[in-house]
Specification:
Helix content is 70%, strand content 3%. The protein is mainly alpha-helical.
């Protein structure tokens, strides 16, 4: 019964673990220089004024992705045990931590909404 949603959660876990790697367009400093992922941020010249800002942002994205993925794993475990409520709680947390970057990542929010609309009625 949960096979499809479990596949979606697994994909979301993989995706969120890679947010800081795959990245998106994010601008930093007064000149709004685009730095698209953590690797690019760390490669900036040490004297770049916006370097620390970009690194900090992408490390926060990385941590957020890990936190969301960990909650996703808890949701998977709960579904394997037939516990929809615990799965919903874990998915809620994933979409909650994603909110500050959801306009870019858009991974957990739609999954949580779909899960609740189809299984939590």
């Amino acid at each position: 019964m949960y096979e499809e949603v479990m596949r979606q959660i697994e994909k979301a876990i993989e995706s969120s673990e890679q947010w800081a790697v795959t990245g998106w367009s994010a601008a930093f400093g007064s000149r709004q220089v685009v730095v698209s992922n953590l690797k690019d941020a760390e490669a900036l010249p040490r004297n770049a004024v916006y370097r620390l800002e970009a690194i900090n942002y992408w490390k926060q994205v990385e941590q957020t992705g890990h936190d969301a993925a960990e909650a996703g794993r808890k949701a998977l475990d709960a579904l394997r045990n037939g516990d929809e409520c615990t799965a919903a709680d874990a998915l809620y947390f994933s979409q909650y931590v994603e909110k500050p970057i959801a306009v870019f990542s858009n991974t957990w929010g739609p999954l949580y909404e779909e899960f609740c609309s189809s299984l939590c009625n």
